[in-house]
Amino acid sequence: MWPRLPFGDGLRAALGTPGRSRRLGSSPRSRVWRVELPTTTAVVKQLVADPGADERYAREVAALGLAARARPPVVPALLATDPGERVLVLEHLDHRRPSEDWIVDYAGTLARLHASAGPEDAGVLPRWQGPAQADADSFLGLADALEVPVAPGVPGELRELVQRLGRAPGHALLHGDPCPGNDLHTAAGVRFIDFEQASLGSGLMELAYLRVGFPTCWCVTSVPAPLLERAEGAYRTAWRAATGCALQEGLADACAGWLLRGDALVERARRDGTDHLDRLADRDWTWGTASARERLVHRLGVVSRMTAADASLGGVSGLTADLRRRMLVRWPALRPVPARRP
């Protein structure tokens, strides 16, 4: 049986008695309904009880509060909450099929979302967490397992990369999972939903999604170069308009950071501390639109190109190019990741 609609007395006092409701698809971590209220149509979201549910709920409420500052809006309006039941009631928005160049508007809206928080919001959400030294060691272990030589300077480059990412400046409001499916394309523009993993940090960490193929998402894609240029230009323009500042450098570091994260090769439920880069040498697995090896080959190509002229990651550039070639020779059936979102 479906669980009942969690719409208690407090929500009824604030918004009225709900009428017809319909259960919507969602992740296993939440239950979502479309609900007819006396004056509007709304979305009711309840986070399912698990050890991290209270933290995820608090992050989502806090992030929606920060994002509500942006004009034009970048998120649905938060109409009411019931913390005891971990329930949010949100404005309902009609999603339209994204256009062929959807990623341009997406990127501009992502910049405005990021710019909705600032230094004064420190502590409202946790700081973004980058890869650890253990991730870098796992990446080097994969190269060893595939018999790809590692130049002497590469371990030091990776160690310094991890350190740079750990102290990356910025107070941007990071979505945490800004993937296709968590963006609503409406007549009034793009809106983001599902902020359970929100944090504060450098916006470059999510601008990197466009290049490395949406690493936390089932629908990995490879954006064609002309469209990628337009999208990154839209992000930079929107960021400057919202903050008055040019975007800082460091996109290559951000992309390389995602390459090191084995957890970005599996869905969230399997991010349990397993060394997925170690598993990759012996077996492949499919998640959404691509296999783990196909995802990694795409990211290796991105990082090798971006770091080719980077003095701080020159050895990493050579290693990633060599590792990509070795994977394609060893597993010739690997395909490029899709160029279009599902």
Put the structure in a nutshell:
By secondary structure, the protein is α+β, with helices and mostly antiparallel strands. The chain is built from twelve helices and eleven strands.
Secondary-structure map with pairings?
Blueprint: H1 9-15, E1 21-24, E2 30-36, E3 41-47, H2 53-67, E4 78-82, E5 87-91, H3 102-114, H4 133-145, H5 154-166, E6 172-174, E7 183-186, E8 189-192, E9 199-201, H6 204-207, H7 209-212, H8 225-243, H9 251-260, H10 276-280, E10 286-287, E11 290-291, H11 292-306, H12 314-330
Helix pairs in contact: 3-8, 4-5, 5-9, 9-11, 11-12
Describe the overall structure.
Helices cover about 40% and strands about 15% of the residues. It is globular. The chain is built from 12 helices and 11 strands. The chain is of the alpha+beta class and about 350 residues long. The longest helix is centred in the C-terminal third of the chain and has 19 residues, at about 225-245. α5 crosses α9.
